[in-house]
Amino acid sequence: MRAVLMAGGSGTRLRPLTCDLPKPMVPILNRPIAEHIINLLKRHQITEVIATLHYLPDVLRDYFQDGSDFGVQMTYAVEEDQPLGTAGCVKNIAELLDETFLVISGDSITDFDLTAAIAFHKQNKSKATLILTRVPNPIEFGVVITDEERRIRRFLEKPSSSEIFSDTVNTGTYILEPEVLEYLPANIECDFSKDLFPLLLAKDEPMYGYIAQGYWCDVGHLDAYREAQYDALDRKVNLDFAYKEVSHELWVGQNTYIDHTAVIETPAVIGDNCRIGARVQIEAGTVIGDNVTIGADANLKRPIVWNGAFIGDEAHLSACVISRGARVDRRAHVLEAAVVGSLSTVGEEAQISPGVRVWPSKKIESGAVLNINLIWGNTAQRNLFGQRGVQGLANIDITPEFAVKLGSAYGSTLKPGSKVTVSRDQRNVSRMVTRSLIAGLMSVGIDIQNLDATAIPIARTVIPTMSVAGGIHVRVHPDRPDYILIEFMDAKGINISKALEKKIEGAYFKEDMRRALIHEIGDVSYPSQVMDRYCTAFEKLLHVHTLRNSRAKVVIDYVYAVSGAVLPQMLDKFGADAVVLNASVNKSAMSITDREGLLTQLGHVVEALKANFGVQVSANGEQLILVDESGYPIRGETLTALMVDMILTANPRGTVVVPVHASSAIEQVARRHDGRVIRTKANPTALMEACQKNPNVVLGGSGETGFIFPQLHPGFDSMFCIAKIIEMLTIQERSLAAARSELPRVIHKTYTVRCPWTAKGALMRYLVETHPAQNLELIDGVKICQPYDDSWLLVLPDASEPLVHLYANSNDREWVDETVRNYRTRVQSFVERQQEYQPAEM
């Protein structure tokens, strides 16, 4: 049987280890990952190996040559011009694959029983068998669901936190029949998970998942790289050691000298031709490569030291990685999770702070303290982008230095000379971050259209009219007053796609920024008539005549927080009477309690002035809460249902788009008007995209995030919403209180349960497996529906916190209370069981 070893990866997230090495050649226990894979194949009598190469192909080819030294026969296929993707590079060598073959990823450490997997494949007459495993946190991987017979029914490549519906993941090892390659086009980039497997699923070809027992670690980032070494030393995975075991759990190579005063705790590995000096302390978990010199009195606490490194006297290394040929001089300290790139020098008494990465061939001066942390954010994310844009603590995570680098990374994904709009709210911290982003963008040759302090709906409206590549908006986070939120928009004004987010992250983490020459540095201009363009677009979509006749009186509370208060002028122009409260902008954001106090105050003002209604605007012009004529607040699910009712009354048979967790009152209202409801994932970008893609959409959104009017612009807009409400109330001759009283009575309840990141995938799989498939919806999270009824329960993992949210919805209050109680208990006890089980596993 032949195996295809996928060895083309460049290992972006392992930089700087992979600056001069392809990912499969990164050493684990002083042997390349690819060598451990070849040993595994050999153990299962697979000795014909075809390696597909792309990044630095000669490194792997020079090491393995024809494979005879390693007991296999090696051939190579190099993707010269462009990467062809995981499936494309296998299609490229289809003529060599005339019988059942195995595809294995060149960047994971595993000891799976391949013989058993192949037997399973043949026994089930499968066309494609995916080797699967269970992991605590599946967010980095492709998630798979199989039925009782292990036939694959569904999968999703690298889900966001809220999309996880199982903890069973694709390990990148497949057993395939040659005929499946006929489904793939030749010489075109394509991927097994994204292209081939969905096609086989659609064609109902027999495709199975073999859930393998044993160890598997995708060496995808630096934490995983260190963990894999420690697991291998602790014998959690069955790997071959390159050296002799000279005493219990101490492996030492040939011609190595260890001073008799050195103290070595085990397990530890020391390579060939090493020199370990007097009184050196080596803690358990340390891996030392070949040809390494360690000076007297050095202290090594679980570092991974590659071949040819030099460690000076009294140096301290703690759980770090020292790459090939690097030099750490006397008394220098390299701390936890730091990485020193190949051929770099750390000067005497210098310190590399935790998590800092030093690229190859750099020199750190003696005595310097290097603490520029290149990995931003917390370890749970390992990403820049969260649920909506880049967010973090103001001036702690989101600093000027960070913003400059983020601006350069974004600009580097665009063509030189492209234009980008930049806008913000009126807070000083947003101005600081915006100026830093502008500096980063200019440095890579991007021109700036600076909209300054502008409400976000205005920015989204003008972006498509300005011939720009995209836009950035910076503001204090709507839900967290100590956080900054940076949102990136495309040329249409929609939040950018996941693919573009990944591109920006790649440039940021790779430090892959271009530098413009002096004459190419970007320019900044301040476009005029931005407000006028918005007002013109705004006016076109309203019955201005109706507004003029309405003589409406509205009270608008800006909560000291909205830039460019354009609405009162517009309403004044249309002959409506707008009373404005709290329109100045505070330096600091309001707490939730203060906002609630202002909402109560707004209710009193509306009553006292006998106004038609009041509205509290927030999130820099995106969100709103209404107050009816009696001072009663309308928000959340009620506000969503009310808006849908008014819009569909004005546009019968229209389509509305709401997130998966919105109340079923929406469907009930839509039925009255022959309307259609589309449900999306619970994130703002998904809502925006669905509003643009689907025909005849008249409204999108929900009370929490605001409302989208796709004809105006792709984002949320509370200002246009208010004008539209006045228009609709006038034409429909009703008041807000009357409209509210006509809404269906639906009970909608939310409850939040703590759930560690590591248990989310297992919880979702448990829910999928314990409910009939016909009762489940897996748009986002797991929605369990009652047949013939609008009752349902949704379990939705939080995208950025270790939480899951339960949403219960029904016309029957008792059913809602009972269901929330029942599932809260089920989730809590499942999480407790997982936590009891976890330590036993480790």
TrEMBL record:
Main location group: cytoplasm
InterPro entries (alphabetical): A-D-PHexomutase_a/b/a-I (IPR005844), A-D-PHexomutase_a/b/a-I/II/III (IPR016055), A-D-PHexomutase_a/b/a-II (IPR005845), A-D-PHexomutase_a/b/a-III (IPR005846), A-D-PHexomutase_C_sf (IPR036900), LbH_EIF2B3/5 (IPR056764), Mannose-1P_guanyltransferase (IPR050486), NTP_transferase_dom (IPR005835)
Highest rank taxon of the organism: Bacteria
Keywords: Cytoplasm, Initiation factor, Isomerase, Nucleotidyltransferase, Phosphoprotein, Protein biosynthesis, Transferase
A UniProt-annotated Pfam family: PGM_PMM_II
Domain EIF2B subunit epsilon/gamma LbH span(s) in chain numbering: 248-352
Family recorded in the similarity comment: Belongs to the phosphohexose mutase family.
UniProt name for this protein: Nucleotidyl transferase
Organism: Nostoc punctiforme (strain ATCC 29133 / PCC 73102)
